[in-house]
Amino acid sequence: MMGTAPFSAFIDIPSMLVVCGGSVAAGLICFPLGSMIGSPKVMLKTILNKSEDKLALIKQLVALAETARRDGLLTLESKIADIQNPLVKTGIQMAVDGSTPEVVEQVLRTEADALAARHREGKAIMDQMGRFSPAYGMIGTLLGLIMMLADMSDPSKLGAGMAVALITTLYGAIMANVFFCPFAEKLGLMSRAELTSIEIAIRGVMAIQSGESPRAIEQKLRTFLPPKLRNAE
Amino acid sequence: MMGTAPFSAFIDIPSMLVVCGGSVAAGLICFPLGSMIGSPKVMLKTILNKSEDKLALIKQLVALAETARRDGLLTLESKIADIQNPLVKTGIQMAVDGSTPEVVEQVLRTEADALAARHREGKAIMDQMGRFSPAYGMIGTLLGLIMMLADMSDPSKLGAGMAVALITTLYGAIMANVFFCPFAEKLGLMSRAELTSIEIAIRGVMAIQSGESPRAIEQKLRTFLPPKLRNAE
Amino acid sequence: MMGTAPFSAFIDIPSMLVVCGGSVAAGLICFPLGSMIGSPKVMLKTILNKSEDKLALIKQLVALAETARRDGLLTLESKIADIQNPLVKTGIQMAVDGSTPEVVEQVLRTEADALAARHREGKAIMDQMGRFSPAYGMIGTLLGLIMMLADMSDPSKLGAGMAVALITTLYGAIMANVFFCPFAEKLGLMSRAELTSIEIAIRGVMAIQSGESPRAIEQKLRTFLPPKLRNAE
Amino acid sequence: MMGTAPFSAFIDIPSMLVVCGGSVAAGLICFPLGSMIGSPKVMLKTILNKSEDKLALIKQLVALAETARRDGLLTLESKIADIQNPLVKTGIQMAVDGSTPEVVEQVLRTEADALAARHREGKAIMDQMGRFSPAYGMIGTLLGLIMMLADMSDPSKLGAGMAVALITTLYGAIMANVFFCPFAEKLGLMSRAELTSIEIAIRGVMAIQSGESPRAIEQKLRTFLPPKLRNAE
Amino acid sequence: MMGTAPFSAFIDIPSMLVVCGGSVAAGLICFPLGSMIGSPKVMLKTILNKSEDKLALIKQLVALAETARRDGLLTLESKIADIQNPLVKTGIQMAVDGSTPEVVEQVLRTEADALAARHREGKAIMDQMGRFSPAYGMIGTLLGLIMMLADMSDPSKLGAGMAVALITTLYGAIMANVFFCPFAEKLGLMSRAELTSIEIAIRGVMAIQSGESPRAIEQKLRTFLPPKLRNAE
């Protein structure tokens, strides 16, 4: 690349409208309006999100188990406000309220599924948009080429017309490869990483409710950690 | 895109015939005539359809359970006409008619499978049409190019010939990315969303037939709801 | 498309040889000679085939069950010649011959698997041919382009040479999208549709052999039908 | 195609080196050296191989069962040399040596898995090479185009340069569609076909060791055959 | 290819920045920074790695079993330093420390899962980079083409501009097909090959802890080996 063309050569408002408008319109046919509007928020969250600290989660569960053992399950009520993890929060609340272990587990699993479904939808939106944007880029280029070829009265404008026609392909490729595809992949990785946290949370809550000893709970939950973290203080 | 070509530059009847005719013909080889004719209706339904209100479904099941508990299963006969959900309707009708729980469950599952198969076929038609239309667009462009190149007596018509040849590619890309692909994706999402409703309906009917208490049924079915809806009145 | 080129512009025997010959040769490496020779027969059958009448199949099974109940299993021997469905035929023959239910079921399942494997192979042939024909179309175009470019002594023939080179791509695209891909899809749909018939036939034969009442058999088998057909006379 | 270019127009040694060398080098990164060297042998075997005669295999197993029944399991030792099928050979040898049925079955299953893994690796090599060869064809064409475009001092050589640049794409397409892809498909089909033979061999050996009657063994194994062969003498 | 262009025709620093920079940036959105930085190390390890010697692993497990049988499980403590395989090391250490078999097995399985997850992440990075690099190559070529076409004041520079524009496509294709794709495939093959070693290690440790006889352990573990190695000394 050695061109000296000004940056403005890459800006073309109608092209942008075709690619962005087309992709968003196609996305709106596929997905509910609410999910589409929420997807930039999902992208932002993806960038900022740190994967949860599993060791801290286990420590909190063990601390809860100690309190429950010492002072009874009902004393956990005062601690619920301090719990970050939504699954642990719901589970402890239900245990305190006297739900049976079966109901607690089913509710937690349903909640975990709902969470997973939300991640899956986010990924599906990114995936689809990553497929639509290059397609609308190509549609825009075809529109531009046909217009240009249909009216070749001034051959000297051929190059410029071609350049403008190619801009939509460029926009589509950039949108797909800079935004949608990487974020789709990221969301997929993140939801797989969260599965372990979810499993730790559910097993921890079940163990607390069944009154297992804090030491046994800790040993059991730490087997979910990778070797390096297992014996960490 | 900066062309000043009139809109008519994008209209070419023979091209339309090649792309639409070809795609529909290929679709007719794949799918039964009836399914193909029904597919625009499916697309329309997809746009208008709201996903079923699961909370209302649970409330109706609980109300039916209360009536059945208080006045006996047979009194449900008078309420069947008010039931919207076809699975619940069939299930209650069979329960009133005295079918065994095993037969009721198998019939409901078969009906749910038939429903899912109908959605899957709709999605398969959209998917295939979304694959055939760009292919026939390319076939049309090749036809146009060969005709143009075989007869280049007047080079000044080259541009116009090329423009017309490209129109079929444009048609194919638009048909695929504006109609078929988004609707295929939408149908796929919708049938996944319906799985929960189906599960709630079947479990609810089975619980009513086995005479469980309305409160227990409600608690059990609400675990299928996402957290926000679970405690709603 | 506005060309006035004669139809002969689209006929080129060497191109046809490259695309058809190449695809068939590649197909012969993949699949046994017998399966390749049989594949046009499979395509013909696909067009003519109507999916089996499941209701008639159930009625026949119920009629057989009534005869078996009234006059004993052995009297079914005289009816075997009237049975269309090959699985039912084999199963009743074996039951009459005194095979144990386990052997009858295993033989029927193996036969059903062999049938499914035959459909799968037909689909695999169509799928592969649908992948090879555009590839050999491209190979032919590359051959044509290289020949044309290597010898450009007469530039006025450039257009005609290009047209001829593109013909193989056109042939490949037409073969794939008019023949192979639609038939592959059709065969896939058809074998899924047959699974229910196979299940009805096997369950019916097993029920007849175990001497269940005709009414119970009918009720059980009808649960496999879609709702509309279930209560049909 | 109507070119009169000599065949030599399609021969270009550097192009061949780029495509073949590149594909093989990429293959060597993916697969162990030994597997790559063995892959032409695998391709040869694929062409010559006839699928095993399952009927003969069953007959041999029944004959072995008869001998074992009549003269005791140990007399099979003298027959081991005549057995072709490696699984049957290993199994009978182990049974004669007094291994327990559990160990015999586990060894046979491991051996069958190793065989399947060998086929899978052969298919994986073909698949990868079928993906790398068009890619290196494209890389070669890009190299050629860039060289040609960077030095356009003599425009009359443009056509010839383009022709040479396209040759690598042609080589890549031919290698993929004439060699690698068809053989990959063939290997996939062959290993699926062998699964039945393996199952027959393992079940047969287990039945011989447990001393089942030859007639029962034959009946059981024949259920694995397609209908036409089942009652063959 | 017959060009006489100097090698420098293939070097263009801005193009390299677009392709490498773009791919790495997209990769960093998908994967944690640490994993991306570690991926060259993974590639290096892949080249150098020899697959583990399973026979030696079994011999070591048998030797450990003999010691444990003769002198008690606790005497294994002195041998732990000599063990190479990390799973065996962890397992024996835990057995010596008195963990219950259930805990030992769960910890070993978690560790094996963590190992597999690390391999899967390495493969995912290679796969993604192999998808991003040609995409950024295309984006670079589009940028170059648009710049060139927008400013065609000097037609004699067209060829050179085109050559430079194509360089990014070349870079992307080379990066994908020389580096990322082959290594992705290699990592996939390697992790499948390691599954057997992992299974041998876990089963061996469990058998040692439960005090099985060394001969029985050896026989059991050798069934995991391919036939050729099974009876090797």
Quick structural summary:
The structure is a homopentamer of 233-residue chains. Chain A is mainly alpha-helical.
Describe this structure in words.
Five copies of one chain form a homopentamer. By secondary structure, chain A is mainly alpha-helical. Chain A is 76% helix and 0% strand. Chain A has eight helices and no strands. The first copy, chain A, has helices at residues 13-30, 33-48, 54-71, 86-96, 101-150, 158-209, 214-222, 227-230. In chain A, helix 3 packs parallel to helix 6 (158-209), helix 3 runs antiparallel to helix 7 and helix 4 (86-96) packs antiparallel against helix 5. Chain A is elongated and about 90 Å long. The mean pLDDT of chain A is 85.
